[in-house]
Specification:
- 22% of the residues lie in helices and 20% in strands.
- By secondary structure, it is α/β, with parallel strands linked by helices.
- The chain has two domains: 191 residues, P-loop containing nucleotide triphosphate hydrolases (Rossmann fold, 3-Layer(aba) Sandwich); 106 residues, no CATH class.
- A hairpin with a 2-residue loop joins strand 12 and strand 13.
- The chain is rod-shaped, with a radius of gyration of 48 Å.
Length: 381
């Protein structure tokens, strides 16, 4: 099987090759042919605890890269080959000798595994890349502030773009003891890459986000303890409850009398709920949820805001943002008839419903002949 590891210098492909391929092959007893700069057998023997002559019989180091293609023809069956900087061996647009290309095409018949490493698969000749079965492209994680991790994207042939899976690994300092990277081999790299965590705007945004989440989650710590009921100030004693007076039966057809100045309602900052209204003798009266019969002026005094009466499609209505209409789901409250008292002249003059003539009858009777007549209770009405 031919596997290709690609990635820029320092992306983790050499580390992954040693940790996931060379060491497992070595410990499995396979015959190895290695062309990796900085791979020293004496250091490997020291850390593996094995005699150096034993490793020299198991591992063959190839230093002359120009001779590697021809050396592939003489390797032992069942062995494994690891070639770093493979683009220097099978360079793009260079023709591969026919016998070497045939060996690459039939290497699996000999039980050989071939591991290639390059910065980009397009640096290799197409005669080799089209035989690759597995490709892993490595990427540095320093830009995300994770210098001790690497990321790889696994796909099939390098020409394929579909990623089969993604792997994330962590560098183990013990693995570095087995080989020397390009940085310790005489080539130094000046790291100028900036990570996303080095952005001051991002850091400010992260701190702000953490502070906002902390304030939302533990806001009660910053707002202090709420005062208990014993610590709250007592309500003022000057406000007296509303007295509706004595209820007397209604004995005439006159309109019910609203509350007088002696029983002025208490001003409230809450909205007043109006259950309905009645019109008698051209005058409008409104019934609230407590059963009180009020004029528009008294409602305005209750809610502490302007209240306007108007006619909408022939039906009287009140206009104010301090008024709610309809019941609250409780049993209906029957209106309480108040003691007969003089009407509030100011409320009567301000209501547009009082512009009609006072002597205008409230009820008209139409007979079967469609003629208006006095209502005498006869069956013709």
């Amino acid at each position: 099987m031919i596997t290709l590891l690609e990635g820029t210098p320092g992306s983790g492909k050499s580390y992954y090759a040693v940790a996931e391929y060379l060491l497992p092959w070595l410990r499995a007893g396979r015959r190895l042919y290695v062309a990796v700069d900085g791979f020293y057998l004496d250091r490997l023997a020291l850390f593996e605890g094995r005699p150096l002559p034993e490793l020299q019989k198991q591992i063959t180091l190839w230093a002359e890269r120009t001779a590697i293609p021809s050396l592939l023809l003489s390797i032992e069956p069942g062995s494994a080959v690891c070639l770093d900087e493979a683009q220097t061996i099978f360079r793009a647009k260079e023709k591969v000798p026919g016998e070497i290309l045939r060996w690459l095409e039939t290497h699996r018949h000999y039980g050989v595994d071939l591991l290639l490493m390059a910065q980009d698969y397009r640096q290799l000749t197409s005669g080799v890349t089209r035989l690759v079965e597995s490709t892993i492209k490595f990427r540095r994680m320093e830009r995300f502030g994770m210098r001790r991790r690497f990321q790889g994207f696994v796909r099939g042939n390098p020409e394929e773009t579909e990623v089969i899976r993604t792997l994330i690994g962590r560098y183990d300092p013990k693995i570095y003891a087995y080989y020397s990277s390009y940085a310790t081999g005489g080539i130094t790299e000046e790291r100028r890459m900036k990570t996303i965590m080095s952005s001051p705007l991002l850091l400010i945004g992260l701190f702000g986000l953490v502070g906002a989440l902390g304030f939302i989650g533990w806001g009660t710590w910053f707002s202090g303890t709420k005062p208990s009921a014993a610590q709250l100030p007592a309500p003022p004693n000057s406000v007296q409850p509303l007295s509706l007076g004595t209820v007397e039966p209604l004995v005439s057809s006159d309109a019910p009398t609203p509350l007088s100045a002696t029983t002025a309602p208490t001003v409230t900052s809450e909205r007043l709920r109006i259950e309905g209204g009645i019109v008698m003798n051209g005058k409008a009266y409104w019934v609230d949820a407590q059963g009180r019969i009020l004029t528009a002026a008294q409602i305005a005094a209750l809610v502490g805001a302007p209240v306007t009466e108007q006619i909408v499609n022939g039906v009287p209505s009140l206009v104010s943002d301090r008024i709610l209409w309809g019941g609250e789901g409780n049993p209906p409250v029957m209106p309480q008839l108040l003691a007969r008292q003089p009407l509030d002249e100011v409320a009567a003059e301000s209501s547009p419903l009082f512009n009609e003539h006072a002597e205008k009858p409230d009820v008209k009777c139409i007979g079967v002949d469609n003629q208006e007549r006095a209502c005498d209770g006869s069956s013709r009405d």
